[in-house]
């Protein structure tokens, strides 16, 4: 997608939630990256964005540059067969697919408190037959604050705190907002929209559009959404500052101790004229949806012992039957996460914030992951 405190958009963490978009790791083809301008001399390079993230929120070795604080989850997906009319992806068959994932909040500070107006995110890795994988990076909001990689970088730089004051320069932020009304609109939305009270009762959206192709060779552009069985409850924003540091992660750990959590996956079909290349623009709620299966999360475990710590949740790692749309953010997310993944897996691993939380079992000693190619690591 790396918090994004919208009601205080000039604050230190306001930018990092953009990570929900600019942070995902390698796996896009060289041709796709080239088409996005990422491999062209003189064009915007992904290392510049990673450097900007580190400059904005500090460099925390061994942690993700985006969504630094998280909890591993393990579960499965049950397809109902309905998705095969849209895509030949094996995930949509009447079968059970193992999945690992990660709940997280936007932000590049590993020990940040959960009391922030920010993205609730869920990343997933489905292990499919014949060695295929499908990785997703999902947010509880249906849109993203910026439409292009350059806008993301510009926003990072505009909101980087001044070392002398610890706050961004208001003039720089105002200049950026004047040129990017879509970011201002997103900030207004986050300030007014209800926040989920739990990771368990939030929707999780693809945000970007993708292409589905079925066995008949028919291709159409889609988005998708995971809808929880847990009833939605609103988090009181007025109480955020008084909440314990890890209250959201503690809460979902308590729920998982009582039993599995379930979401229903629906594919959203656009009408003619709905944007496919701009993640800042929502599709209307009345668009057709096709329910294609059920995600069940059975348990959670800290990253210190869990299976997600060294996974690069690049949303362009896709199975046959799914491909990127014309949204320019997808190539950026892949490229930026590739750089971030390479850096953090070459650094000493540090204990996660949740390792010291009494709601979670004490982890065994964690050995740093060996560096491996960032583009398509096996990441078990």
UniProtKB/TrEMBL annotation:
Pfam families assigned: Catalase
Species: Nitrospirillum amazonense
Protein name from the UniProt record: Catalase-related peroxidase
Keyword line: Heme, Iron, Metal-binding, Oxidoreductase, Peroxidase
UniProt-annotated stretches for the region Disordered: 348-380
Family membership noted in the UniProt record: Belongs to the catalase family.
Function recorded in the entry: Has an organic peroxide-dependent peroxidase activity.
Active site per the UniProt annotation: 67
EC annotation from Swiss-Prot or TrEMBL: 1.11.1.-
A cellular-component GO term for this protein: cytoplasm
Residues that hold heme according to the record: 337
BP term (GO), one: response to hydrogen peroxide
Low complexity composition bias: residue spans: 358-380
One GO molecular-function entry: metal ion binding
Cofactor(s) needed by this chain: heme
Catalase core domain span: 25-380
InterPro entries found in the cross-reference section: Catalase (IPR018028), Catalase_core (IPR011614), Catalase_sf (IPR020835), Catalase_SrpA-type_pred (IPR024168)
């Amino acid at each position: 997608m790396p918090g994004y405190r919208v009601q205080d958009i000039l604050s230190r963490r306001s930018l990092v939630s953009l990570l929900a978009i600019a942070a995902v790791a390698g796996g896009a083809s060289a041709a796709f990256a080239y088409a996005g301008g990422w491999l062209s001399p003189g064009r915007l390079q992904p290392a510049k964005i990673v450097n900007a993230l580190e400059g904005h929120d500090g460099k925390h070795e061994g942690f993700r540059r985006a969504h630094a604080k998280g909890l591993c989850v393990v579960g499965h997906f049950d397809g109902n067969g309905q998705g095969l009319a849209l895509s030949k992806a094996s995930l949509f068959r009447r079968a059970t697919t193992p999945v690992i994932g990660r709940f997280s909040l936007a932000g590049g500070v590993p020990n940040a408190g959960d009391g922030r107006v920010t993205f609730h995110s869920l990343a997933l890795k489905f292990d499919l037959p014949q060695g295929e994988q499908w990785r997703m990076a999902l947010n509880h909001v249906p849109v993203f604050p910026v439409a292009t990689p350059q806008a993301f970088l510009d926003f990072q730089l505009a909101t980087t705190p001044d070392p002398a004051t610890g706050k961004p320069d208001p003039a720089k932020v105002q200049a950026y907002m004047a040129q990017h009304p879509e970011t201002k609109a997103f900030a207004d939305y986050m300030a007014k929209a209800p926040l989920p009270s739990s990771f368990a009762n939030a929707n999780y959206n693809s945000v970007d559009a993708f292409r589905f192709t079925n066995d008949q060779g028919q291709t159409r552009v889609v988005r998708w959404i995971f809808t929880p069985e847990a009833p939605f409850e609103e988090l009181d924003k007025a109480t955020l500052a008084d909440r314990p540091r890890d209250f959201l992660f503690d809460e979902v750990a308590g729920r998982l101790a009582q039993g599995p959590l379930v979401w229903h996956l629906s594919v959203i079909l656009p009408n003619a004229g709905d944007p496919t290349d701009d993640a800042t623009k929502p599709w209307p709620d009345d668009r057709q949806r096709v329910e294609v299966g059920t995600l069940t999360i059975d348990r959670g475990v800290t990253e210190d012992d869990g299976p997600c710590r060294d996974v690069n949740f690049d949303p362009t790692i896709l199975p046959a039957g799914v491909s990127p749309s014309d949204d320019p953010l997808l190539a950026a997310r892949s490229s930026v996460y590739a750089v971030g993944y390479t850096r953090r897996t070459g650094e000493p691993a540090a204990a996660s914030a949740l390792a010291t939380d009494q709601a979670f079992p004490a982890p065994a000693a964690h050995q740093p992951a060996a560096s491996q190619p960032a583009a398509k690591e096996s990441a078990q």
